[in-house]
Write the structure tokens for this entry.
Amino acid sequence: MVFSAPIRLLASLALITLYACNGQTQSNPKPAPDSEILLTHHPVQETDGVVYFSYDQGLTWENKSEGLPSTTSIGLGGIAVSGNQLALISKDSGLYYFKSQEDKWVPISTSKQLLEGNVGALLFYHDRLYAGTQTKGVFYSEDNGHTWATLNTGLDNVTIRKFAKIEDRLYVATNSGLYSYNDTSGRWELEYGNGSLQVNGLTVFDGRIYMATSQGGFASPIGEKDWKPIFSKGALHNISSDDQAVSAMAYNELFSS
């Protein structure tokens, strides 16, 4: 797969990425399924909100920030969805769950150690909630975020950028490569990387994992660890896909396969 000529930042993926990095998203009165929750940098009528939802693929947006401090800053991977559960985590405001019956966000008292690690990534996986930090690695909770334990065995780097779940396996993007978690051994295993490979994003398309990194783009068939370069013209800051193509974002350009 080869990326075509760049598309400027009018395209939705680039806008999604930039808006999430600025800590701005959207919401609706009832919990949205995974496929309906979108992040965007598209202008909205209100500009004083923190979180917005859309049920029409980003055509209209509704401010659903009640309960969140106005200073809340959400990282690119700081929102997690699972069934009817919706949570976000912020290094300055902590962990919140969206309560649809109350139509607002509710804070959850959580670990000081987790927040001190500069938390930025969040994911529901099986019966756990996972959080990734900049300086203290991976944490997990089995009680909806009230208590946490670390899970760093096997990681060579504890700067966590993103989580992903792919074919019932948990992946984590770090500043030294991509790792997957082995449930049997209780260890993280290196999928691909080196001491300087910062992994910024993951996506799955047509049976392959695509990875955006500080050293370009790479792809491998799922589960085979046969990584090949697909983009070598510079760093890629994020990557996404739909049922037709893979798109990746550089500093100010969007590439599509």
